[in-house]
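Fig. S4 source data, part A: sequence.
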Amino acid sequence: MLGQAGDADARTSIRLVLLDALLGQHDAPWLAALDGGAGSPLAGLARVCRSAGWWWPFEKVAVVCERPVALHRDEAGRLDHGDGPALEFPDGFALCAWRGMPVPRAFLKELRTLTPERIRAEENAELRRVMLEYYGYDRYLTDSGAEPVHQDETGTLWRVELVGDEAVVMVEVVNSTPEPDGTRRTYWLRVPPTTRTARKGVAWTFGVAPEAYEPLRQT
């Protein structure tokens, strides 16, 4: 039997082999821009693209995957879905993920019934951040009874301490441009936990020092 070192070496070897996968259906965008008709050197890739997902061609055997029946990604291309598997195949194999981070399927089901108390009780900092993103930082601040720590002409600074993790600090700002119905939209900007004033927080979102944040016009 392999020891711990042997197991690690075997896992590394498998990962390196998996990196050599061809993209199958995921090659479609660039294959469509080239001549992949009969007789073309790309004809074989085009045929696989029409009926399979990732595949690994070796000298005497090829490993071919089915196309996924579900694939959900965020704007950055990461696997991401809050209501079920982000990636699922016909045989039932599935992977749940939130913004690229794998999470248990049962964890996703729990997101629909979150409360501030449950979020605070979560010991895993990464999972707690997922909970906060799903629940909404502004909603969490409101439901947690957070108190404003600073207010000026730029907005209101809010802070909530989290055990074993950095504090949630956000600036509440009101859009200076009214909506068609005359109301003004409120935005919540998360800022570094070291932020002590609303001006400093808003200035940080623009990448400037607080004393340099003097907009001539706000929109």
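Fig. S4 source data, part B ends here. The chain has eight helices and eleven strands.
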